[in-house]
UniProtKB/TrEMBL annotation:
This is aldehyde dehydrogenase (NAD(+)). It comes from Nonomuraea insulae. Its EC number is 1.2.1.3. The keyword Oxidoreductase applies. Homotetramer. The keyword Oxidoreductase applies. The lineage of its organism: Bacteria, Bacillati, Actinomycetota, Actinomycetes, Streptosporangiales. Keywords: NAD, Oxidoreductase.
Amino acid sequence: MIDTDTLRAKARGALDRCGVKDYDGDALSARSPVTGEDLFGIGGSGDVERAVAQARAAFLQWRATPAPVRGHLVKRLGELIHEHREDLADLVSIEAGKIRSEALGEVQEMIDVCEFALGLSRQLYGRTMPSERPGHRLMETWHPLGVVGVISAFNFPVAVWSWNTAIALTCGDTVVWKPSEQTPLTALACSALLDRAVAETGAPAGLHQLLLGGPEVGERLVDSPDVALISATGSTRMGRAVGPRVAARFGRSILELGGNNAAVVTASADLDLTVNAVVFAAAGTAGQRCTTMRRLIVHEDVADELIDRIAAAYRRLPVGDPFDGKTLVGPLINEAAHGRMRASLSQAAAEGGELLAGGERELVPDAPGAFYVRPALVRMPAQSTIVKEETFAPILYALTYSDLDEAIALHNDVPQGLSSAIFTRDQREAERFLSSDGSDCGIVNVNAGTSGAEIGGAFGGEKETGGGRESGSDAWRSYMRRSTSTVSYSEHLVLAQDVSFL
């Protein structure tokens, strides 16, 4: 088991190599869920007004920079992230508790979105439409929006920042970032690398600002009238607070909130494939992904076999030190997360649930303050309330169904609408699940789990998930403003709709 002194040395080494300077202080305490202990205090600025003013001043210059030139900045950022891939992965594991492969995967996601944003810098396409008036041209163009405020969560401490920042910078915006107070070290490292990329490419100083602090810092950022767009990732409860406050000042928001993701497993499914996909989606990142699979809706003909196989796989999962190459399940972020998991399991039992595997805390030597748990599998009756709630921990509720209409109704009967999956060899079942009267989620997969989205597709969900979209596809439009323009090259004034005035 890795000890706190080793983690502390790893963290300081990674920060130093990423170019972070003068980070010691008492603004926040850097803590690692790996041992459950504090590493060291760090300084930082929570001066929202100053950060927004500097970002606003930089925007006035950055918005006039040609988009392909802006792309050079995100290209250099991606190169620097690649150079410091191991350091950033170390920090992700230290602060978020992710196993090595997942930490490296998150850093790779940053590199991927920088490559996407580079290509996007030459594809911010407008549109030309035929005008009803002779001698006129009608067109739409897209322009930089302004200062973008990014509020990110602990579970993806760097990827979500990169989704927003790489796209926003390419679109001509500037960024003010308020990371989770549980992951300040990854934020310091990413900010330092971007500062270096800014200096090396000649971009305006101040176009990226980092704010470290508690919830009050995020609240002031949300309320700032000079922040054109707030992109916030977190719980539905957080979104209910953020959305109305931004709307009250006529700002824009992208909300990536809770998920209560399910997979439907039909009688025709490949069970070998299904077991592997379900175990990763439900137990990966210790159940602390917004796309974690939390409900398994299985056809009654294959339910007993599939549930038994998943329970057996759960019992074999290596739980422990995320720096150990054999580990597949790292720690929960803190004691509060463990308390919520225990409370949900108690409620599930009260509603008739049967715990088939896991749920217990794993005591790890030399880490008494850490919270390692064995992922839990609970068989539930169809009519239960706990399955409609998201618990940010590795709990998978298994339910059964008899026909596909029933399965889809069970699937959609939750407030959240982020990610979904169906496992089937029947094309008709797959197409039905993908159709407008199938899954009501923003992400709908066939024979693939609910976790592990690629950056090329827009990421986000419906209902209480917030409706926002980040990363790929046309999500870039959220970071820009649209102008509709009419150009007349006629010698006469021609009014639309055949209006005659003079």
